[in-house]
Each structure stands twice: as C-alpha cells, then as structure tokens.
Amino acid sequence: MRDGLEIVQKSMLEADVSYSVVQDFMGHVSEKALGKRVLLSLRPNEELVRIVHDELISILGPVDSSLHLKSEGPTIIMLCGLQGSGKTTTCGKLSQLLKEQDIKPMLVAADLQRPAAIEQLHVIGRQLDIPVYSEADNKDPVKVCQNGVAKAKAEGARVVILDTAGRLAIDDELMAELAKIDKKVGPDQVYLVVDGMTGQDAVNSAGAFNDALELDGVIMTKLDGDARGGALLSVKHVTGVPIKFIGTGEHFDALEPFRPEGMASRILQ
Ligand code: GDP
C-alpha cells in the first residue's frame, strides 16, 4: 500500500497541488485505507485508488454551478481576480450562458486600471448584443458600479456583471478597492477568477482574495491547456467555496460547469 500512496502523492504534486494540501490529503487517505483494511483486500492498490478518487471528489465538491439568480430585481455578480486571469473574457462567457437561457445581462466596466479593459468589454457587448455600462471620466470604481446597477434596475436587466480591476500581483490597494465595491454595492455573488496555468501562485492569490472578500465561488480558467488542474484542489482547500465553472478556451462558449469526477481523474493521471 505504501507504494500506492507514494504514487498518488507524486501524481498530485506533479498536477500542481500544493505541498501542504497533498500532505493533508494523504493523511486522510491513509486513515481511511487503514480503517477499510485495504491491506487485507484482494487488490489493495485498486481499493486505494478508489478511496483516493472518492476522497478527491468529496473535497472538490459540492457541485453548484447555479448563479443563484433572484426572482426580483437584478442579481449582481462581481468578478474579481488578478490581471490576465480571464475576468473580462469570463464576463462574455457568463453572458453567453445567460443569453442561452433568454436572460439578457448588463455588463459594468469597473476595471479602471487597465486602459484597454473598458473597450474590451464594449467589444464583447457588441459581439453578444448586450448592453455595457461604462463612464469615460469616472475614476471611482465604486461609483461606476453603483451607477451601473442603478441603470440596470431602471432598464429591468435581470443580471448585472461587474468586471473589476486586477493587478499583476496582490496588493493592498487592489484589495481595499474590491472590498469597498463588495461593501457599498453589495453583490449577490462574488466569484474569484483564477488562471489554472499559474499553479502554486493561484493558491496564494486565492488566499488573499478570500481574506479580503466574501467569495461565493471560483471560476478557474485556461484548463484547456496542459495544466492538470491540481491548483483547483488547493484553491478549494484555501477558499472553501464551490468551484462554479472551468474555462476551456478563449471563445464565449468555452465555459463548462465544474464536475469533480472529471477533475479527479485529471489530477490523478
Ligand atoms: P482579465 O485581465 O482578467 O480581464 O483577463 P482577460 O479576460 O483579458 O484574459 C486574458 C487572456 O486570457 C486573454 O487573451 C483571454 O483570451 C485568455 N483567456 C481567458 N480565459 C481563457 C481560457 O479559459 N482558456 C484560454 N486558453 N485562454 C483564456
């Protein structure tokens, strides 16, 4: 059984699961394996793989890709994450998903850090034929979000998606800005968008966002590449909130509801 456990541990580390999470996980699995007397079973390694797989699924769950839309008034969804994580693209993907359900969202360009971000959101709005709220000269993202939400209410939009600013790395100013939007605008759902290719860094940033904001879910992008997705396990461990979706490409339809089974197999490859 020890050989089997070592293989699992190696596989998880190669998949980019952080060391402390792997240690924790192996502790649980060993305990379960001993409890089930895996050693006495006819095929101990098969039994072990099943325990590992089930344990991964249980940690990665629960499945919850609902956007929890309210029946009255606009549901406000705030996306946050580091620059380049895929927030703006994900605004388009969520909009596409909503459009497929006959719900027309409004996007709010609250990323005032990156000059091209506002235009990028307008391009998405034109492509998907959905309204985008932006203010050219306003430097206060809280005000922009408040005004955007007021406009969405006035126009009867069912969903408003706030595209907030990111930074290349975590800094206090960014966190203070996001916390202020969270407090003053009161989004119904706050999702952290994490780049699945960044491995260990994803875990550190997720910890910082989780400390500053009350997250409701995680969307991990760029899982169409080689990344084995181990960062998801670490991010889930750090935040404790459901993984809502995974991004699997640059197009608007490249967003999949998160399924723990597929990800468990991928991590254990
Ligand atoms: P933001 O700074 O967080 O708003 O990030 P963007 O939405 O501008 O995305 C940064 C880059 O990542 C862009 O080139 C996107 O096309 C790309 N991107 C976003 N999501 C995915 C994904 O799921 N897969 C791949 N391959 N690329 C993605």
From TrEMBL:
<feature type="domain" description="SRP54-type proteins GTP-binding">
    <location>
        <begin position="242"/>
        <end position="255"/>
    </location>
</feature>
<keyword id="KW-0687">Ribonucleoprotein</keyword>
<keyword id="KW-0378">Hydrolase</keyword>
<keyword id="KW-0733">Signal recognition particle</keyword>
<keyword id="KW-0694">RNA-binding</keyword>
<protein>
    <recommendedName>
        <fullName>signal-recognition-particle GTPase</fullName>
        <ecNumber>3.6.5.4</ecNumber>
    </recommendedName>
</protein>
<keyword id="KW-0342">GTP-binding</keyword>
<keyword id="KW-0547">Nucleotide-binding</keyword>
<comment type="similarity">
    <text>Belongs to the GTP-binding SRP family. SRP54 subfamily.</text>
</comment>
